[in-house]
């Protein structure tokens, strides 16, 4: 079986996903087109040799409804022969796109493939595709009762693992500080592709707040302690706020994946290889806990231990997620989201998996780390987990 390698990876800056955000004026197709163009320019590949473009996107409606990867390839000047497909595994969509790309290369279906993601949450609001519809149906309700939203699930996770409000806020402040420190030393420069928005170039993440402190975050009110939720979960001390949750964000990211043989043929030096991946489901009520068993599964599959991993990227959908992960697996503070996560850098849903992998590989290269592990909780109680080996 062939070995799949990642040759290069890029992302846009992260923009606040609201009216007036740094990237809100940019159509999502153009966000994605920019990173596709950058991959071609940086590697010198012939875009006509790309066998497929796999794009994660959660809000597949409005401006993201027409197979955004296909439209982005056309906008980026790729030959019309290059196809695309949209992948949706909720927050893990971009990571699943990468996993499918790697599997396609290993199976011989692809020689060269792009995996990535896009989400303009300012222009395609979260949940707008669902509207008022019931996505669960009577069968699920009969089995589990009324499932809850992710914010309430985060409260249930914090309660189960005994996480205090101060722990959530301390962690969140640290995410902003780590991201600010990384940005200050140029740690993100290699991965960010500037975006032209409203006549100005956006070159840095808008989402990082360097002055964030746990004290400031402690003044925010919990969001999900409604009367209905309190009636159902009366034992919970509500503590999830906007400050200890991921940010609504605009962004895109893409990775160039190919066989090791094709990289050698094109005289391209791989940045990383994918060692293995796994996907797993867990309790749909707690919803956010699947990264824990998915990580155990992938580590067992590839024959590594927690101690072998130089950096863990656990998507910061809510601070409770990486903190529960840390308690279960015994991960050291310094290797858990070492340059900040979605609380500081934002969470553009379908693009996050590709963005996080881009940042992870660059961090490993900068610090001399060998193995990195990325995992993301996903709606419905699922998670992807992927292990990569940095090659430089």
Automatic annotation (TrEMBL):
Keywords: Acyltransferase, Transferase. PROSITE patterns: THIOLASE_2. It comes from the Bacteria. The keyword Cell division does not apply. Pfam families: Thiolase_C (PF02803), Thiolase_N (PF00108). Residues 5-260 form the Thiolase N-terminal domain. Residues 269-389 form the Thiolase C-terminal domain. InterPro entries: Thiolase (IPR002155), Thiolase-like (IPR016039), Thiolase_C (IPR020617), Thiolase_CS (IPR020613), Thiolase_N (IPR020616). Belongs to the thiolase-like superfamily. Thiolase family. It comes from Gordonia caeni. This is Thiolase family protein.
């Amino acid at each position: 079986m062939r070995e799949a390698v990642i040759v290069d990876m890029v992302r846009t800056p992260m923009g606040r996903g609201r009216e007036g955000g740094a990237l809100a004026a940019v159509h999502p197709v153009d966000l994605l087109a920019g990173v596709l163009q950058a991959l071609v320019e940086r590697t010198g590949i012939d875009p006509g040799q790309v066998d497929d473009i796999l794009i994660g996107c959660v809000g597949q409606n409005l401006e993201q409804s027409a197979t955004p990867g296909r439209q982005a390839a056309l906008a980026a000047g790729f030959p019309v022969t290059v196809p695309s497909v949209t992948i949706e595994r909720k927050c893990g969509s971009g990571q699943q796109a990468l996993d499918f790309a790697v599997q396609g290369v290993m199976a011989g279906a692809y020689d060269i493939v792009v995996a990535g993601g896009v989400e303009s949450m300012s222009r395609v609001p979260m949940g707008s595709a669902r509207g008022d519809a019931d996505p669960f149906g009577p069968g699920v309700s009969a089995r589990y009762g009324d499932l809850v939203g992710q914010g309430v699930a985060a409260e249930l996770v914090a309660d189960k693992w005994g996480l205090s409000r101060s722990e959530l806020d301390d962690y969140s402040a640290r995410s902003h500080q780590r991201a600010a420190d990384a940005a200050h030393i140029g740690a993100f420069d290699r991965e960010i592709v500037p975006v032209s928005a409203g006549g100005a170039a956006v070159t840095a993440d808008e989402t990082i707040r360097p002055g964030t402190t746990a004290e400031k975050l402690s003044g925010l009110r919990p969001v999900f302690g409604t009367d209905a939720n309190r009636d159902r979960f009366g034992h919970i001390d509500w503590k999830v706020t906007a400050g200890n949750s991921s940010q609504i964000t605009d962004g895109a990211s893409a990775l160039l994946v190919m066989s090791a043989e094709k990289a050698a043929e094109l005289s391209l030096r791989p940045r990383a290889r994918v060692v293995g991946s796994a996907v797993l489901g867990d309790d749909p009520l707690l919803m956010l806990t699947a990264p824990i068993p998915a990580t155990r599964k992938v580590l067992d599959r590839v024959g590594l231990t927690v101690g072998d991993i130089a950096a863990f990227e656990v998507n910061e959908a809510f601070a409770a997620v990486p903190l529960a992960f840390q308690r279960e697996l015994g991960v050291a503070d310094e290797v858990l989201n070492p340059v900040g996560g979605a609380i500081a850098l934002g969470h553009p849903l379908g693009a996050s998996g590709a963005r996080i992998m881009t940042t992870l590989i660059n961090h490993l290269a900068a610090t001399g780390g060998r193995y990195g592990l990325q995992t993301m909780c996903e709606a419905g109680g699922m998670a992807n987990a992927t292990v990569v080996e940095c090659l430089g």
